[in-house]
Write a structure and sequence with these properties.
The complex is a heterodimer of chains A (144) and B (451).
Chain A lengths: L5 E8 L2 E2 L8 E8 L2 E9 L5 H10 L2 E5 L5 H9 L3 E3 L6 H9 L19 H9 L15
Chain B lengths: L1 H6 L3 H7 L4 E5 L5 E4 L1 H7 L3 H4 L5 H4 L9 H8 L3 E9 L5 E12 L5 E10 L1 H13 L1 E2 L2 E2 L3 H15 L4 E4 L6 H11 L7 E5 L5 H9 E2 L11 E2 L1 H4 L4 E5 L6 H13 L1 E2 L8 E2 L3 E6 L3 H6 L5 H7 L2 E4 L10 H16 L3 E4 L1 H9 L5 H15 L3 E3 L12 H6 L4 H15 L4 H8 L3 H11 L12
Parallel strand pairs in B: 8-15, 8-16, 9-12, 12-15, 17-18
Antiparallel strand pairs in B: 1-2, 1-5, 3-4, 4-5, 6-7, 10-11, 13-14
Helix pairs in contact in B: 8-9, 12-14, 15-17, 19-20, 19-21, 20-21
Classes of the chains: A alpha/beta (144), B alpha/beta (451).
Chain lengths: 144, 451
């Protein structure tokens, strides 16, 4: 956390984490420094393709994205662009940001239904068999 | 807990669980109040985790933010039926689903929320993709019998080194076919160079095709590579060869005969390693017969000959092409155009398309620009495609009449040959026979076809 502040983005809709990043229209940006977050504005997603979305976040210097659901391919494109993705989060943006700053975002309270307790049915069966699926669960790595 | 809740299931839940489609209900605040077994299976979200949560945080649909169907129903009171969307399941897969929504009311009519059903279209989508793959070759799409036969032999043609002559009217996809041949050939990693021979005056042809050396003429300050040199190792596509002047024909003949050429001002010939694919929208046989095209050049070019039918002869491809072009436009411009109305498709099917696929593509782009979003309707199409009032009365109005006209035209086009017509239409002979009987179609059989 020395030098340049880290840039965090939260995909948001009506004050909550947007339900699906693939189709979300805006992200809210925050500068993180010394354990505090300063809002720096919002960015409108330029288009529907994951490449356009990754480029827009990259241009803003975003290193971490907190979002709701995200498809495997879009997740891969963001990861390839060097953006750490914390997906399948739901809740009010302010509370989610606070949970992130206090390292408590990993709790089931913030996890989208079906993700917190291992899922159900086909979704879970698929996730077990797909190597990229493992990238969607906790841990996401260091949070600070 | 699951067992416990199962034992306490109400008859309503038992009915919902027996349905193969996903069903959930929400209250007026968008919180899920019931979630059936199929919904659990499709989304990957267990019922006990879904109940009480916001529907958007359970469904994760692409329309949740921008065009929620349930909200539309709650706002207008009108149901949404079979809207195609996608959701992202908990394993990160995008699932195409078809949704329908309706109001949820108490017995006294008071609205207490909404209900949404959704059907997993993954299998349908997969089959659609497979069908599309069957009907495509490189960037070309067709289910036409002749085109399908061409797709079948195209890989063998591409693998050979022989010169190919493509015939077909303007806008029928000659360059696309040339590209397909190049892409399927061992030369695919090398360049494909397109030269419009009709657009090159004689005075420029040599310098454009063969290049020149510095000092070859007044303005030749340094060497310039010709198109043949640029295509070295690859393919050169000579379009509109029927429009070449006699003088140009002589120069091209030499390249084809000797596989070498002399750049302007060069002192020795250069060997050319290029494959030649030529095309024309004119009837070369007639040009040769009239003395407007050299016979020796014709024989050099006419090693493998492919003929692209005009779009008027492959109208069964129009729906496929519409889907292809609309999909491409929507991908590039993302305007929210969701489809095309049956009336607009009928208008496109009625027209004879003298400009062929290029004209169809332009008409669709015109409609796409004028359509503000949603469905493309006839009024979005270019004016000449609007049915005239006097024409409307004589046009096939019902699906049955359209089918009758379509099959009759196909039979006439194939000289009454049932087997070939059935193949062209993508149905079996028995189905064609039944449809002819049902629709009262009476086209004489071809000679030699048994009863």
């Amino acid at each position: 956390m020395n030098g340049e502040p880290t840039k965090l983005a939260i995909s948001a809709h009506l004050g909550r984490v947007a339900p699906l990043f693939d189709a979300s229209q805006q992200v809210e940006l925050f500068d993180l420094d010394q354990g505090t977050a300063t809002p720096t504005g919002t960015v409108t997603m330029p288009g529907p393709t994951p490449q356009q979305r990754a480029a827009a976040l990259h241009e803003q210097g975003v290193s971490t994205l907190i979002c709701g659901a995200i498809s495997g391919y879009v997740h891969q494109v963001l990861a390839a662009a060097g953006i750490q993705v914390i997906p399948w989060i739901c809740g009010p943006v302010g509370a989610v940001l606070n949970a992130y700053l206090t390292n408590t975002l990993a709790g089931p309270a913030w996890m989208a239904p079906g993700r917190g307790r291992g899922g159900f049915g086909r979704g879970l069966r698929r996730r077990r068999g797909r190597p990229w699926g493992s990238g969607f669960g906790w841990p996401y790595g260091p949070m600070s | 807990m699951a067992k416990n809740s199962e034992s306490q299931q109400q008859p309503f839940d038992v009915v919902l669980d027996s349905i193969a489609d996903g069903v959930f209900t929400v209250d007026k605040d968008w919180h899920i109040t019931s979630f059936n077994r199929a919904a659990e299976e499709i989304t990957g979200v267990p019922r006990d985790e879904a109940i009480g949560r916001l529907c958007s945080e359970v469904l994760h649909a692409n329309i949740c933010e921008s065009a929620c169907a349930l909200r539309q129903t709650m706002d207008t009171g009108k149901p949404v039926i079979n809207k195609s969307i996608y959701i992202v399941a908990t394993d990160g897969r995008r699932l195409p689903v078809s949704i329908s929504t309706a109001l949820l009311k108490k017995e006294d009519g008071e609205v207490i929320g909404g209900v949404e059903t959704f059907r997993d279209l993954s299998v349908v989508e997969e089959l659609r993709k497979q069908l599309k793959a069957r009907h495509s070759c490189e960037d070309m799409i067709s289910r036409n019998h002749e085109m399908q036969r061409m797709f079948g032999i195209l890989p063998d043609i591409a693998q050979s080194e022989s010169t190919v002559l493509i015939e077909g009217p303007s806008g029928s996809g000659k360059e696309l076919l040339a590209r397909a041949i190049h892409n399927l050939s061992p030369r695919a990693q090398k360049p494909l160079v397109v030269v419009n021979m009709g657009a090159l005056p004689d005075t420029l042809l040599e310098s454009e095709l063969f290049g020149y050396k510095a000092g070859a003429f007044t303005d030749a300050k340094k060497d310039k590579s010709g198109r043949i040199a640029i295509a070295e190792g690859g393919t050169i596509f000579l379009d509109e060869i029927g429009d070449m002047s006699p003088a140009s024909q002589v120069k091209l003949l030499r390249v084809l005969q000797e596989h070498e050429y002399e750049p302007l001002g060069a002192t020795k010939p250069v060997r050319a390693d290029v494959r030649v694919v030529a095309a024309t929208n004119r009837n070369v046989d007639e040009l040769v017969a009239d003395g407007n095209f050299r016979e020796d050049l014709y024989y050099r070019l006419n090693v493998l000959r492919l003929t692209l039918p005009p779009l008027a002869n492959r109208k069964e491809d129009i729906p496929l092409l519409i889907e292809h072009f609309m999909g491409r436009l929507e991908t590039i411009r993302n305007k929210g155009v969701t489809g095309i109305s049956d009336e607009a498709v009928a208008a496109l099917m009625r027209y004879d398309w003298p400009g062929n696929i290029r004209e169809l593509e332009n008409a669709l782009e015109h409609a796409y620009v004028l359509c503000g979003g949603g469905e493309i309707r006839p009024e979005h199409l270019p004016g000449h495609l609007h049915p005239r009032p006097d024409e409307r009365a004589t046009l096939p109005g019902t699906l049955r009449e359209m089918e009758r006209e379509f099959i009759t035209n196909a039979l006439i086009r194939n000289n009454g040959r049932r087997v070939v017509t059935a193949e062209e239409l993508g149905i079996d002979k028995g189905t064609l026979w039944r449809k002819m009987k049902r629709l009262g179609i009476d086209v004489p059989r071809a000679k030699g076809e048994g009863a």
